[in-house]
Write a structure and sequence with these properties.
135 residues; mainly alpha; 5 helices; 0% strand
Length: 135
């Protein structure tokens, strides 16, 4: 059985690959819209796993240590921003064909922001979680 951080890392890879696989010209097809729905589902499942399994351990430690609390708070605030951006993207592009330039711009922004967020999780939260889970 995978450790939680290994599972989340695998989900990061899958999510990034699925998002990168949505091309502007492909989006105008049924397959493209199905890919957007798949990315939405992957994103929601991933954030639910984090909220159910990762953050409870981190929040428990945050009650005892202000430095941990500050890091966790920053990451949760950051997740809120990324989630809002992602959900806006899904809502906007699940419905119908956009202009290619608009889609490419929004898609590129989401790919970049999500990549940065996932990297921060792996560099900041995962080591902290692993350390806390050992105790």
């Amino acid at each position: 059985m995978l450790r939680l951080t290994e599972q989340l890392h695998c989900e990061h890879t899958e999510l990034q690959q699925a998002l990168a696989g949505i091309r502007p010209r492909l989006f105008r097809t049924t397959e493209g819209q199905q890919r957007v729905s798949r990315v939405r589902d992957l994103f929601r499942t991933h954030t639910a796993t984090e909220n159910d399994k990762l953050y409870p351990v981190l929040n428990s430690a945050a009650r005892e240590d202000e430095r941990i609390a500050a890091r966790v708070r920053r990451m949760q605030d950051d997740l809120g921003i990324v989630s809002e951006l992602a959900e806006g993207f899904f809502a906007k592009y699940e419905k119908g064909p956009p202009s290619l330039i608009e889609f490419a711009t929004d898609h590129g922004a989401l790919v970049t922001i999500l990549k940065i967020r996932l990297q921060r999780e792996e560099e900041t939260l995962f080591p902290l979680y692993e350390k806390l889970a050992e105790n």
